[in-house]
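Subgroup meeting minutes
Present: P.N., E.W., G.H.
Scribe: E.W.

1. P.N. recapped why we're keeping a running log of single-chain structure predictions: easier to compare across weeks, and new members can see raw inputs and outputs side by side.
2. G.H. added today's entry (370 aa).
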Amino acid sequence: MGHRNTPFWLGFSLIKGIGPSRLRGIYRHFHGDLEAAWQASPQALEHAGLSGTALENLLERRTKLNLSGSLERLADLGARICTLEDPDYPRLLAEIHDAPPIFYIKGELLPADERALAIVGTRRPTAYGAGVAGDLASALARADITIVSGLAIGIDVAAHRAALEAGGRTIAVMGNGIDQIYPPQNARLADDIVRNRQGAILTEYPPRTPPDAKHFPARNRIISGLSLGVLVVEAPEQSGALLKANLAAEQGREVFAVPGNITVRNSYGTNRLIQDGAKLVLRSDDVLEELNLSHRIVQTRQEVQSLSPADEIEAQLLQIIELEPLHIDEIAIRSQLSIQEVSARLTMMALKGMVQETAPMHYGLHRSAL
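Output recorded in log:
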């Protein structure tokens, strides 16, 4: 019955006042026959739990909506709907008690996306926070973990982009219609996710739904619902990222947090999460071990081991920048080598994927070492 129901899933989702909970109730009341529900009498719909404005909206709009035309317009956008009846509806998401019965999607979901981790945090990260988010997302993506986030500026973007650059997969969950990207400056990132076939962007909100802060809690339940756990990277005490962590805990997901400087406001929330029992994360291995994916650690370590230092000088330079990225002048002082030799060595090591330039003239270990 799933394909027969498709236009009616869409139709009900377009009716103001019929949210996920009511739609699930209608589906159950009519024993999975949404076509019958769409055509039902007002009395039958009242028995299904519809009343007031929601019922009035349905009775008014169902005669005016061209459902096949709406599906065609979605296709023109490069989008489609995915419902609880569809075989590619994410298994993890279906497990939560308030799973969205329908969502709109561009891109593709794969069975491998069940190995997913949400990476979230502040929209105003420090350089440390953005760097750590990117490094961890990159390392986890190379271990075949799908990175889930909310396409917001800050930590979200750092995680999405790093996953793409590592050749991995990422899913972006929005709080607005599938026909628009918010914030607009992330349109290219969203396009890259879909065009490169490296994941999906999705939302439970119909086209033409503008972004609204009131949508974020509902969006957040999908972010954590799609994931085995949620990793918080930098969050003040009043951050929305902490709400995502709380949702994850309520859904039975693992909660992870990256520690930060105790004097920096952006770390107050993450440090508090750790105090309250969140798993402290220093390396990608910490996440993989907690999620019982330690076999992925072996794979990523084998990649790193293939990049062993060629000689004692390379080994010395790696040891110098092991704890934190340093300016090339400081590396030269500590290694007692000339600036010219250090520069040449670091350039070659960067080409081999052993180190990376983290800021102008600053070098640190490559993400694969995390």
